[in-house]
Design brief:
Mean pLDDT of chain A: 84
Number of helices of chain A: 13
Distance between the termini of chain B: 40 Å
Oligomer: heterodimer
Largest sheet of chain B: none
Shape of chain A: globular
Helix content of chain B: 55-70%
Shape of chain B: globular
Low-confidence stretches of chain B: 1-22
């Protein structure tokens, strides 16, 4: 069996490891800078040995506004994800369990709405938000994120639900379960993994979104993406503090992302690559 | 008590005759998502098109009315438009080339079993999860800064003059940042595609005496065909709208050297508040994206067995 896996595996492993370390290096370098003093962070040659300090993190947390930006990111990501699921789960459920002649067309049309480039509709969305008094509110961001992630959500859930046995509800009803039991005890445990990974992908996309967050928010509703961008302007040379703030901003998503590699492929390719 | 009489499985109303087991009325489940998406895709699109034919500036509300095709005339007469289209295409093509080449090779390498493969993969895809503003700042400050950046130090330590990346090679710098972010995406999708290649096929190729390189060229790359086209289409759609990386690093400069279509629209829209002009450019962006979208929808449709 293993006769076919010859020598190249060592070379392949070495090259793959070098590539991985190179790809990760910028992130590592930033995390390292977040534990340096400001002087050490801009020092050349960069100090190889230094006493790590938590000072930057302390400063970041002292700035009351950091927490409010983080709070905005959390509220917007979770809010948009929950609302998106409320719309996407029923739709995906219906389309996969009870497909009609229109299902295929509906799914493809949903996919095509994702192709409307954000910049193409920047002006209308900005003016609508302004007219509705929603500029610089979390509500505006949530609405935009729900709608822009809805097609991905429906598709991803659809590809999950499609693989479940179609007659499971009827079968459990015949076994004597009532509708609530059929849904909550039979169906829900089966669909939960699909819903979980869809939520994860949606949270990642919302958390990292940086077109609408930069253009629709100012100070009140700005999430971390916008905060980091604004930090760069007047305080550009505070590299250590900026690194600390950035590390905090990306840490949760890095962890989420590592858990959702497979689902990411499924979600972002609309099931075209499995 | 609550044990209902023979209620249908889900919603109450049944249509007379459906397909196989599809006699349930699913309209109430599907329509909220469909109606909202319909509004989301049609209203802003219609508004953009209407604005693009109007004289409309948020800074001067007195100027109002139809402009005919003047917005488009001004836009096409503006050298910034052509330049921004060129920058947009260069950015998309360069990033696609880099991510596809490296992505395919690395996917093939990660197909081979080696110690710590799982950890290496996690490190490799990490850049994809870094928010665009953070990745732009890492590169701009910590790595590419001409005085204090790491690259400057490395170049100086081998006796070369440091490069002022965003002044001397601004577009290349943006390309490097964006490619770093998107390489994991191409890699993951190509790797997923490779993993579906059957062990028997590989075994047969090896028995025929094929080496690793020729297996890559003649077995693995052809197998990745669909995945490659999906990467091309998805990345194109995202890369047409690269914004945060430019916003944080060069603001479109020096001059207009890194102003892509997305950034041009942003400048017209939210810096000059020229609604008409920005919308005309927006219409062009929509047309460009839709050409790409048509191909994508067709590819996905072929794979969709409903």
């Amino acid at each position: 069996m293993s006769a076919g896996r010859p020598r190249p595996s060592r070379a392949a492993g070495v090259i793959a490891w070098i590539a991985s370390l190179l790809m990760f290096f910028p992130i590592f370098w930033m995390v390292l800078a977040s534990f340096k003093t400001e002087v050490q962070a801009i020092q050349t040659p960069p100090p190889i040995v230094f006493t790590p300090t938590l000072e930057n993190y302390a400063t970041i947390f002292e700035r009351a506004d950091y927490l409010s930006f983080a709070f905005n990111s959390i509220v917007v990501s979770i809010g948009a994800t929950v609302l998106m699921l409320l719309l996407a789960v029923p739709a995906a459920f219906a389309m996969s369990f009870y497909p009609t002649a229109r299902t295929r067309g509906t799914l493809l049309w949903m996919l095509s709405t994702k192709m409307l480039p954000a910049v193409g509709v920047l002006m209308p969305i900005y003016i609508i938000s302004k007219t509705a008094g929603l500029l610089d509110t979390r509500t505006a961001l949530i609405i935009v994120y729900v709608l822009s992630n809805l097609p991905i959500g429906v598709w991803m859930l659809f590809t999950f639900f499609r693989e479940l046995p179609k007659d499971i509800i009827e079968a459990s009803r015949i076994d004597g379960a009532n509708v609530q039991q059929a849904i909550f005890q039979v169906l829900l445990p089966l669909v939960a993994p699909g819903i979980a990974s869809t939520s994860l992908l949606s949270i990642i996309l919302c958390w990292n979104e940086a077109f609408w967050s930069l253009n629709l928010t100012a100070h009140n509703a700005a999430p971390l993406t916008a905060f980091i961008a604004s930090f760069s302007a007047p305080e550009g040379l505070f590299w250590a503090k900026l690194s600390a703030a950035s590390t905090l901003a990306i840490a949760p998503i890095l962890i989420f992302g590592w858990f959702s590699q497979k689902q990411l492929v499924r979600g972002l390719t609309f099931g075209a690559v499995k | 008590m609550s044990v209902s009489t023979a209620a249908p499985p889900l919603p109450t109303s049944k249509r007379a005759k459906g397909g196989t087991g599809g006699a349930v009325n699913t309209l109430p489940l599907v329509s909220p998502a469909v109606l909202l998406l319909l509004a989301w895709s049609l209203i802003p699109l219609a508004m953009t098109i209407i604005y693009s034919f109007q004289r409309y500036n948020l800074l001067n509300p007195l100027i109002q009315g139809w402009a005919g095709i003047n917005n488009y005339k001004f836009l096409f007469a503006d050298p910034a438009l052509l330049s921004s289209l060129v920058v947009t295409v260069e950015l998309v093509v360069a990033v696609l080339a880099i991510t596809l080449c490296f992505g395919a090779v690395l996917a093939a390498l990660f197909e081979v079993r080696f110690p710590g493969r799982g950890v290496a993969r996690v490190l490799f895809i990490a850049p994809f999860f870094v928010m665009p503003t953070v990745s732009a700042l890492i590169w701009k400050n910590l790595l590419m800064n001409p005085v204090n950046g790491l690259f400057a130090f490395l170049l100086r330590s081998v006796g070369l003059a440091p490069v002022d990346w965003f002044a001397q090679v601004p577009l290349l710098s943006i390309i490097i940042i964006v490619a770093w972010q998107w390489l994991p995406f191409a890699f993951l999708i190509l790797l997923t595609a490779l993993q579906s290649l059957s062990e028997e096929t590989l075994e047969a190729a090896r028995l025929d005496g094929a080496g690793a390189v020729s297996i890559f060229r003649h077995v693995q790359v052809p197998h990745m065909g669909r995945a490659i086209s999906v990467v091309v289409m998805m990345e194109t759609i995202f890369l047409l709208g690269v914004f945060a990386e430019i916003y944080v690093t060069t603001s479109g400069g020096p001059g207009i050297a890194t102003t892509n279509l997305a950034f041009l629209i942003y400048q017209r829209a939210l810096l000059a508040f020229n609604v008409g002009g920005a919308s005309a450019a927006g219409v062009i962006a929509i047309i460009l994206a839709n050409i790409m979208a048509m191909f994508l929808v067709r590819t996905v449709a072929n794979r969709l067995d409903v």
